[in-house]
TrEMBL record:
Membrane topology according to the record: Multi-pass membrane protein
Domain Potassium channel residues, every copy: 147-213
GO molecular function: voltage-gated potassium channel activity
Keyword Cell division: no
Organism from which the protein derives: Roseovarius albus
Swiss-Prot/TrEMBL keywords: Ion channel, Ion transport, Membrane, Potassium, Potassium channel, Potassium transport, Transmembrane, Transmembrane helix, Transport
Localization, UniProt: Membrane
Transmembrane regions: 21-42, 48-71, 83-102, 138-157, 169-186, 198-219
Name of the protein in question: Ion channel
GO cellular component entries: membrane
Length: 258
């Protein structure tokens, strides 16, 4: 019975049938909804209603994570993936937050890493969306930058502004984050504690790298990812039928539509 259940779950997560694809898109809609909830409630004080909704979302995320681990061929390797580590942190923040002195809600923003980093979801999007296929690198880079900005914003707000009773709003935290990431640094909003300075250094270092990644993805020639079976070349023109490196035939997945 457990084997049959595992097989059905694996089909939902990895299958190519319409029900499997729809299930994975449903997970993405859930991710958007949960991330939106986490973002909108980040500046709000905890209340019984928010805690209840957060716990309900946490249960769903926990079930999703358990299912992914259950059907994985190599569970340890899966746990090493950045998006799985992010999910573990999200689950921890949801269930531990009511019992710890530090507000851990900023960790929940990391759920956004799941959006476009699922192998099978990427395959679905490449097959069904010409726009995604032609702009995959830019979309992934923009998603990473977006998540990092709001992760840092929430961390600044929860760990520094709120914890230290600094009279700034969530918008001030976002303003500080963007100013720091772009190395503008007007100086009107600052973090003066040692931990705040370390966070600022981290934001500048990682943020600049993410901006560069996004810029490179936006301005270099459009390519699609497909590994040539003969020479291993990973990037090809969207309409390529032969590998430019070795001349072998390539079968780039396409919906057949322009």
């Amino acid at each position: 019975m457990l084997t049959q259940l595992q097989s059905k779950i694996q089909t939902l997560y990895t299958g190519s049938e319409r029900i499997s694809v729809n299930f994975r898109y449903g997970l993405i809609l859930f991710d958007f909804a949960s991330i939106g909830f986490f973002l909108l409630t980040a500046p709000l004080p905890n209340s019984p209603v928010l805690i209840t909704i957060s716990l309900a979302l946490g249960v769903i995320i926990l079930l999703d994570t358990v299912c992914r681990l259950w059907i994985a061929d190599d569970r340890l390797d899966l746990l090493k993936k950045p998006y799985m580590l992010a999910d573990v942190l999200v689950i921890f923040s949801v269930f531990a937050n009511p019992f710890v002195a530090i507000d851990l809600r900023f960790l929940r923003i990391l759920r956004g890493l799941r959006l476009v980093h699922s192998y099978y979801l990427l395959g679905d999007l490449r097959r069904q969306s010409v726009f995604f296929r032609n702009n995959e690198d830019a979309i992934v880079a923009a998603n990473n930058l977006f998540i990092f900005i709001f992760f840092c914003t929430s961390a600044v707000y929860e760990l520094h502004f709120s914890a230290e009773d600094i009279p700034h709003t969530y918008l001030d935290a976002l303003y500080f984050t963007v100013a720091t990431l772009t190395t503008t640094g007007y100086g009107d909003v600052t973090l003066t504690t040692p931990s705040g300075k370390l966070l600022s250094i981290l934001m500048m270092g990682v943020g600049v790298a993410l901006f560069v990644q996004l810029g490179r993805a936006l301005f270099r020639p459009t390519k699609v990812k497909y590994k040539c079976t003969s020479c291993g070349l990973l990037r090809h023109d969207a309409d390529a039928i032969h590998c430019k490196h070795c001349g072998a035939t390539v079968a780039i997945e396409s919906s057949g539509k322009d």
